[in-house]
Amino acid sequence: MKPNLNLIESFIRITCGLTLLSLFSAKKKASLIGFIGIILGALKVAEGMTRFCPIKYMNKANQIETKKHEHHQDGRVMNPS
Predict the structure, then answer these.
(1) CB neighbours of 10 closer than 8 A, spacing ≥ 6?
(2) Vertex 14, ends 12 and 17: CA angle to 5°?
(3) 8 A C-beta contact, residue 13 and residue 47
(4) What is the pTM of this model?
(5) Please, are residues 53 and 3 in contact by the beta-carbon 8 Å criterion?
């Protein structure tokens, strides 16, 4: 697993994740929204610590596949109109 986040992005994700964790864990009444918020916060902290974002990885792979597909066409540009 190769890191795809730079140092600034990882610090931002850790900060936002810890903010979400503290915000949703401070609630006195447990709810589904609070549980989801805690999970999302923990995921952001994990992304920041590992410096790997699976969504960013999948998006980059999709862009590469799209470029390959466009390259294999016969050179014509299709107009959307």
Answers:
(1) 47, 48, 49, 51
(2) 105
(3) yes
(4) 0.73
(5) no
